[in-house]
Amino acid sequence: MKAIGFTKCLPVDDAEALLDLDIPAPLAPEGHDMLVEIHAVSVNPVDTKRRRSEEPKDGPRILGFDAAGVVRAVGPLCTLFQAGDEIFYAGVVTRPGSNAEFQLVDERIVGRKPHSLSFAEAAAMPLTAITAWEGLHDRLGLREGDGEGQALLVVGGAGGVGSMVIQIARQRTALTVIATASRPETAAWCRDLGAHHIVDHREDIPAQLKALGVKPRYVFSTNTTARNWDQIVASVAPQGAVVLIESQAPIDARQLMPKSVSLHWELMFTRPMFGTPDMIEQHHLLDAVADLVDHGRLRSTMTRNLGPMTAARLRQAHALVESGTMIGKVVLEGIA
């Protein structure tokens, strides 16, 4: 089958950073696995980080986590889907990815594709929606309707995860949502998604929050955590909570102790990587996301569609993500 992968770690501007490949197709699905025909994928920072830093050891590495496609066959333990179903999901880092014609994926981390979205629009959503949902509900402990009179600070509001945090927080909680953005176009994007207030993360965040009269009980940091750590510590309210999805450099969690602030990590790959007993919760939450989309309460964050997937176009998508200036998500359809 056709696939796109890499054989050595190279900068994105190298023509061999990603290669058009012909590799064996997956075997018939076993257990809870399904064989999926890939119709669209999107690129996330995790793709670019692994391409830059993880040298393949046993042949080419196929990346790609977000995907939307059609089930072609199901394993003997599958009960949630059948051949012909349209689905979307985010895969797992420990298995071959979605940058290929076909992929095996465990049905327990798969949701039905929203009826109202194209495959491309749907492919933009799973990884970021799962991250946002788990971060808000499983890590910060927020339940639907919670947060009256309290505020959430979203650091990196215009990125893929931030865009979903804003939307899910607005639709499922009563929190006042403050997003950070540093350009007019990213600020406008965050407002359009529902952010009540915008602060500039290149300026003094605590001072801007004070001017708004807001002290966030919760902070959701989606990028540049180490750079913003002192401002996050100063911004969060006493007895509040912070959730992080990355930290490119060390942070000192002891700084949170005087305020008795709790610190949480969110990695949406944890459930499938470890086969946790509640792994099926990702299926349930993706179905809930699909329902919210089909009822007009959430929207796809696709902002760039580069067309059919080739190695050259996938390198372009990686370059866009690595630029740090992306608004929303970049998507590719099928494989050329």
From TrEMBL:
Residues 17-332 form the Enoyl reductase (ER) domain. It comes from the Bacteria. Gene3D superfamilies: Medium-chain alcohol dehydrogenases, catalytic domain (3.90.180.10), NAD(P)-binding Rossmann-like Domain (3.40.50.720). Keywords: Acetylation, Cytoplasm, Metal-binding, NADP, Oxidoreductase, RNA-binding, Zinc. It holds the Pfam family ADH_zinc_N. Signal peptide: none annotated. InterPro entries: ADH-like_C, ADH-like_N, ADH_Zn_typ-1, ER, GroES-like_sf, NAD(P)-bd_dom_sf, Quin_OxRdtase/zeta-crystal_CS, Zinc-ADH_QOR/CCCR. PANTHER family: QUINONE OXIDOREDUCTASE. Homotetramer. NCBIfam families: adh_fam_1 (TIGR02817). This is Zinc-type alcohol dehydrogenase-like protein. It comes from Roseomonas alba.
